[in-house]
Predict the structure.
Amino acid sequence: MQLSEILRLEGVVPNLKTANKKQLLQELAAHAGRLTKLDPRGILETLLRREKLGSTGFGHGIAIPHGKFAGIDRVHGVFARLVQPVEFDAVDDQPVDLVFALLAPEAAGADHLKALARISRLFRDQTVVQKLRGTTDREGLYAILTEPAASAPHAA
């Protein structure tokens, strides 16, 4: 699975300004709603419900909020680069500035997990993370996220 199958250029939000985690999730839900035609309130509720199970902030300033939704037929992504990091209750207690929200169909067990794994691998690559933090335009961020080397599986 390539990230270009999940993420569209319109799903990249450069220089997002938010004050806190809830506002960040609201902004992501609004963007995701425009892309998927789902109700942003329903998206927000699902993301918040997932966060109550445990933070999707996995450390080093990165979070991958995610959930499953009725009414979509494929996995969708929204990536945001924040102007200022926000507290996210991440596992390392560091604020978050790079966020990739993932919306999967209700029945997308394997695809949802593959997408989460692909994004997680991408964000473990410090070169990619540095490039994302140093890029402020939508097209540049999209190119970094979807370049074949970034999306290719790493050998185990």
Remarks:
- The chain is about 45% helix and 20% strand.
